Amino acid sequence: MAEQRRFRQVVLLALRGIWCGVSLAIVLTSCRDNEVAPVAAAEVVASSTLGSADAGVPRGWAAPEKALPAPPGMVWIPGGALVAGTPKEQLPRKADQEMPGEQLILEGFLVDQFAFPNEPGAIPITNVTQEEARALCEEKGKRLCSELEWERACKGPRNLTYEYGNRYQEASCGTGGPPRTLPSGYLFGCRSEFGVHDLHGSLWEWTDSFWGRATDGDELALRGGTDTEGRVVGRCANAKPAPQGSRDPTVGFRCCQGQRNTAEVTIGVNKGQALRRVLRPDRDLMSTLEKSMPEDIQTKMKQRGVFRVASLWEWKPVANEDLLLATGCAGIPPLRSCGALIVRRTLGRLDVLDWADSGHFVPLVRMEYSPLKVWVYGGDKLSHYRRDVHFDWGDVRVGEIVRTARAPAPSRSSKTQAGPRVDQANAAARARFGRSGAKGRRPVQREQNEGAPDPPTAP
Fold this sequence. Notes:
The structure is a single chain. The model is unreliable at 15-63, 407-419 and 435-455 (pLDDT under 50). The protein has helices spanning 2-41, 130-139, 147-155, 170-173, 230-233, 283-290, 295-302, 412-440; strands at 44-45, 57-58, 74-77, 80-85, 100-106, 109-112, 143-144, 204-210, 220-224, 239-242, 251-253, 255-257, 275-278, 307-315, 323-330, 337-346, 349-359, 364-366, 373-379, 384-392, 395-398, 402-403. The radius of gyration is 37 Å and the shape is elongated. It is of the alpha+beta class. It contains eight helices and 22 strands.
């Protein structure tokens, strides 16, 4: 019996050893398979277009970019995608000066942390021409930054609207006032995610780029700076032109290093008549506009009837902007409700911007001095009036009602004093035309705006 027990124990131990060995083999095999799987799944290519440094890199894997060692005071900007300019659906935006959010791939480069002389606490050098700025950079073994390199350094790896985020914050860079000269690093919060300081809030900066906005002149591009329109000027995509050879106490510069990126701002400028009435508007377009009314305006209109577009106007406040003003009414006079629907047309898409109420009249649209502003004329039982529609960097602002001065009603005393003169005038009229002529004339019919003042006339 004792020998049988020993035999069973030996058999059990042997079986346990065999089971553990098999399990261990399975585990090791699966681990080796998992390690090899990514390499086996990736197809190794050695394309001549990639160069010898990229030979043998699995497809879909990015070859690591060789970063230049950053000297003291400089920041390495890695290569990557830049969303150049401002997308069309994003506001504020300068349609005639900024690329429409076009993605470009830039190579890596180095940029100074601060404006020249690139020293914390120092006062930046100003009042130099672009050629002088280029020479000062070259003395340091550097170069001027291109316009898009400057924008890449500002927008950071996430392509932000402002260097500090996507929402405007006046205090971050001190924008919203005239250009000024501040010590480098004075506004500590004004830096991009790459670590570049003072891109806004102080000086404008020369770039190594021409003003490539479909112009024939030799103007150059400035970046940075500040102005009273801080939410517009403080954006990384903002720029302005400057004459070649000019110098200004509010213009400085900063330097870059490394191979210059050749990408530049290129914009096709589409100009046209600033304000034009469409004589034969497309019926489908009119129907779409009638259905595009904002919900609150639709609720108001339904109290009077169905809104119908009576006329259509094309408005081009700046190049590359295509706005429509659809004017019409709901209901019948004298209690109808009228106004103008302002819409942006972009590649067949209609984006409603605002509504300008015109009371009981189909509005008249007029432009006086600037293509940035049109007047919508209307009226109600109180008086005629007009209101301005101002183009505001891609958006529109509808102004308050400006009423026409109305002559006061004559007092009873004035009627009494004027009585003899009125009687004399009536007698003269009867003598001139005779009673038979008066009877033969048909009474003048009031127009369909009965119960309201006469339609306003354009100035």
